[in-house]
Specification:
about 575 residues, mainly alpha, 4 domains, 22 helices, globular
């Protein structure tokens, strides 16, 4: 999903939601005027229906009409801009009379969706007035119900704190930097004030259709242009978020023919799938992915319009200038510690900077810093609060552990990504595929993936493969534990791992990620274990953080390159991208 399309979808949803407050006030005002605050006449309730319908039309439908006529041309332009970058004849890149007819028809279809919702909630509000009259419901209760039917939990209230929370949500809902605070405000509205937990209100459906209409208009016009240009291959594009549907996760960046897409649509089901055409409804309601037309032949290099190498004069290469030595300033992280003396903060900075290359320092200076840093035994990073915890001068038994750089790697992985609270590593298909490819370099077995997510199968590294990897990072040691009371009494005996050198605990963690937690258990070594790696994205995020922590150490990083060469290549490509920000 392009940035322009994403902004349009959010903008349209925001405009529709904002106009619902005026609708809420106009409907309540009209009901109050007609009844004078007394529900005494069923006839009067019936007579109110035209006024309620008019209020909905003048507010909700009028705004929908303005959005569609004023803004949907921008969606069409976004489609044409996409086709303009394709190696296709110019006649397919421009707006034609047929396109204008298609656009107008799609606009009409989009508006019909808003009309359906308006009709539905007009009846719901009319029924509320009529039923309240029959039941003798207090006028104030009826007014509260009407407000709930329109704006749900975000309705106007006589409790100031509710109004303040609603105002905060409305003002910041589309601000990605305040997503956590907005979610907390919504949670408080639902739990502390028990407001409209069902969520069946005009705001819910209006916001959804405002978003989905943008995406569906884009999908329909894109497919129409693709057919016109004779393109029948499509790539599923967009980004993943923490609650992305199974379909979207499995299909991201895959290219299929139109027939394959339709066959898959007719034979597969998943949570959140909606009825309709696969190119229009995509993953389902509120899906932010799109099918972009392509042609596999474009991937082939062609130089038919250029002179051959033999036809070109030999290049004259000027002498390479000497690269100036640039000194990169150290990173100040100790200042963010929640507590600690001046000496501790200085030592923390020294330890952290010793774990970084100059390139990493440049990257860190370009990105947002953590909100808070804690010097704790447990190393952990919380993406939501941007809290980093890592121990000063940490050790893994007798070797140095680069835990501060490791946890900062998690921070970089999250804050450098376009999607809030989703790490780059878990959403970048190149990185994900590289890990799968590197896992298959070792002895193991490929099983059929019963989830259907991986057509290549579910690969498990064998004990033979894990033994060969274990030798790269350490050696086995037998440990005996005796009673302190009776030193001759053997309490237990077990086997553990002694690491070869500094940072090799991170290499152990990388292998444990490849083995999905079974390496730590089998060799009593460093890692996160089986349960941790059941979480989606955990393998990719841990490998990224471990590589970030090892990047400065030549010996350990060389072993990492030997174990996961394809993944290291993608990791270094990412660092180069971030350095150029």
């Amino acid at each position: 999903m392009s940035k322009i399309l994403e902004k349009l979808a959010d903008k349209h949803e925001e405009r529709i939601i904002n106009v619902l407050y005026k609708l809420e006030e106009d409907v309540v005002k009209e009901v109050t005027r007609a009844t004078k605050g007394q529900l005494v006449s069923q006839r009067l309730a019936i007579q109110l229906r035209p006024q309620i319908k008019q209020a909905i039309e003048e507010n909700f439908l009028n705004e929908a009409d303005l959005i569609i006529n004023d803004e949907y041309n921008k969606i069409a332009k976004e489609v044409l801009d996409t086709f303009g970058k394709m190696p296709i004849p110019d006649k397919f890149k421009n707006l034609t009379q047929v396109d204008l007819t298609t656009i107008n028809a799609l606009k009409y279809q989009s508006f019909a969706g808003f009309e359906d919702i308006a009709e539905r909630f007009s009846k719901i509000i009319n029924d509320e007035v009529y039923q309240s009259t029959i039941a003798g419901r207090p006028f104030e209760d009826m007014v509260s119900n009407i407000r709930s039917h329109i704006n749900g939990v975000y309705k106007k209230s006589n409790i100031n704190e509710i109004n303040e929370l609603v105002d905060f949500v409305n003002e910041n809902k589309f601000d990605s930097t305040k997503k956590i605070q907005v979610e907390e405000a919504v949670r408080k509205l639902h739990t502390q004030y028990a407001s409209d937990r069902a969520g069946n209100n005009l705001r819910k459906y209006a916001g959804q259709i405002a978003h989905d209409s943008v995406m569906q208009f884009h999908g329909q016009f894109t497919v129409a242009k693709a057919k016109e240009a004779g393109l029948n291959h499509f790539t599923y594009t967009g980004t993943l978020v923490r609650d992305s549907r199974e379909f979207c996760v499995s299909m991201l960046n895959k290219t299929l023919t139109e027939k394959q897409i339709r066959d898959m649509w007719n034979t597969r089901s998943w949570g959140g799938k909606s009825t309709g055409d696969p190119f229009i409804v995509r993953g389902g309601y509120r899906c932010r992915h799109t099918w972009i037309p392509t042609d596999p032949a474009w991937l082939e290099e062609t130089v038919d319009d250029l002179p051959t190498i033999e036809e070109l004069p030999p290049p004259v290469s000027p002498p390479e200038p000497k690269k100036p030595v640039v000194s990169v300033a150290d990173i100040s992280l100790g200042a963010l510690l929640n507590r600690g003396s001046k000496a501790t903060r200085s030592a923390y900075d020294k330890d952290f900077n010793s774990q970084l290359t100059d390139q990493q320092k440049v990257i860190i200076n370009k990105l947002e810093k953590p909100n808070i840093v804690k010097n704790t035994k447990k190393g952990v990073y919380y993406a939501g609060s941007r809290q980093l915890q890592a121990e000063l001068n940490a050790k893994a038994e007798d070797v140095k552990s680069f835990v501060i750089a490791h946890e900062y790697g998690h921070h970089v992985d999250y804050v450098s990504n376009d999607v809030k609270l989703v790490a780059w590593s878990e959403s970048n298909q190149g990185f994900i595929d590289a890990i799968k490819k590197d896992r298959r370099r070792f002895d193991g077995t490929s099983y059929k993936d019963l989830t259907g997510k991986d057509p290549d199968g579910y690969f498990v590294i064998s004990k033979k493969g894990l033994d060969s990897l274990h030798k790269k990072i350490g050696k086995k040691k037998n440990v005996k534990v005796y009673s302190k009371i009776n030193p001759e009494r053997l309490l237990t005996e077990y086997e553990t791992t002694v690491l070869h050198d500094d940072g090799f605990n991170s290499l152990s963690d990388i292998i444990d990620a490849l083995a999905r937690g079974h390496f730590q258990r089998a060799y009593n070594t460093w890692g996160h274990g089986v349960n941790y790696y059941k979480k989606r994205g955990s393998v990719e995020k841990e490998i990224f953080a471990n590589l970030f922590g090892l990047r400065h150490n030549k010996k350990a990083y060389a072993v990492a390159k030997d174990i996961i060469p394809n993944t290291v290549k993608e990791f270094e490509k990412r660092l180069d991208e971030l350095e150029k920000l």
